[in-house]
Amino acid sequence: MSEPTDMTNLCAELQTIWHRTIPISAQMGIEVVGSDDGELTVKASLAPNINVHETAFAGSLFAISTLAGWGAIWLALRARQIDARIVLTDGHIEYKRPVAEDIVCRCRFDAAVQAPNLEQLVRTDSSFFPLTCTINATGRRAVEFEGEYAVRV
Amino acid sequence: MSEPTDMTNLCAELQTIWHRTIPISAQMGIEVVGSDDGELTVKASLAPNINVHETAFAGSLFAISTLAGWGAIWLALRARQIDARIVLTDGHIEYKRPVAEDIVCRCRFDAAVQAPNLEQLVRTDSSFFPLTCTINATGRRAVEFEGEYAVRV
Fold it and tell me: Which of A52, A109, A140, B42 is exposed most, by the fewest CB atoms within 10 A?
């Protein structure tokens, strides 16, 4: 069962960590909206992330996706009292349509799917977590990101 | 044969376009170093792109790679008096080792390899250009980026 207050505090801590240790994330205006049942939502205004076509810059869309995946793992581990080093090792992103509105990125950490990876982490202090993050625009899928994260305790 | 002065001017124009129309590229401190025989070199200081591990942020490494590829195409087209819209549609990035130094990204636009794509662009006003960008750290390959760019006149 989720504990809403704890999760709210963890989400606030996550955003603080990002802005303090990854200064460009603050300049992109990346904020944690919240986490609901394993799904983390992260947002950023379009303005600081605009590109030459007046839509969201591909690099910003990748950065926000990277952080959403990182954050989803961080939250899942913190909820299990695991403090680990999380590093993106491989990322694939598909830009299906331009994003001409504020950026909202979602990433689900599916505990059932990730159970073998979590078990491996507990057993060996090292594991990999593949995650998918998505961004919609005008209600349709605009960005699909697949990241593989290496995690070490 | 390359025309050094023209290429120097084009590189300066490229950087101006990025900083003016993609504000986050200026905040990342992304600069055009130059282009030599079809190979564009782009750099950024580590400081504004630092992450929680005190190495370069994955999102910044992707952003600089994206722009290096975009710039390599832009330069190749401008040298041929083609003014086109260039959009990244698909990106894959592999992080092989951390980057704990200033970021230097290289991207070669190989005219012989890209000849069929250029011909298609001239014939149909629309084409795709696949490109590889790389970043080394301590002299070894740290990042490998493969991007597919859609180009329309």
Answer: A140
